[in-house]
Design brief:
138 residues; mainly alpha; 0% strand; elongated; binds protoporphyrin IX containing FE
Length: 138
């Protein structure tokens, strides 16, 4: 019962974290396209608020995953591959934090096209991670 409750919480916080991982880069796409001061300031505010909201969700998603792994003695190559991909997601999350500061300081050099491709990274990782954890192929 405890195991399944933790797994349910894990999936809930993974979904919530991904809401931010999908939406924040979309704000960057818009931010890279606009020049008027009012819109630039509003996007900067939305980005920093979203980042403050999604960071604890990511910490809870990963923390509960670690609890499942180490608390219940799971093992398997799928878990190592999954953790490697999640480490990439954490790096992506932290890089988004740097991009927020770059936009706020007027130091952004990337185009909205670049951010459209950047926005697809979490989608690809999500597909691979969910197939890994459900199928456990190795
Ligand atoms: C380092 C971070 C993470 C660790 C250590 C971890 C570990 C685990 C473990 C041990 C399970 C239980 C597997 C089972 O009961 O069969 C699990 C379930 C799951 N994890 Fe994670 N996880 C992490 C992050 C994530 C992320 C970022 C995602 C989404 C992209 C994710 C998606 C899932 C899903 C969908 C399940 C349910 C699988 C099922 O019920 O068959 N996890 N995770």
């Amino acid at each position: 019962m405890l195991y399944l409750s933790i797994k349910a919480l894990h999936i809930i916080f993974v979904i919530s974290w991904f809401a931010g991982l999908f939406y924040l880069p979309r704000l960057f796409v818009n931010h890279a396209m606009v020049t008027d001061k009012a819109t630039v300031e509003r996007l900067a505010l939305m980005e920093s608020k979203l980042y403050r909201f999604m960071t604890p969700l990511g910490i809870l998603a990963v923390g509960l995953g670690m609890w499942l792994w180490f608390g219940f003695g799971l093992a398997g190559g799928w878990l190592h591959a999954k953790t490697a991909l999640v480490t990439l997601l954490i790096a992506y999350h932290l890089y988004c934090g740097r991009l927020i500061r770059a936009f706020a300081d007027g130091r952004n050099t990337r185009s909205h096209v670049w951010y459209r491709f950047f926005n697809e990274v979490p989608v690809l990782v999500l597909f691979v991670v969910v197939f890994l954890v459900v199928l456990k192929p190795f």
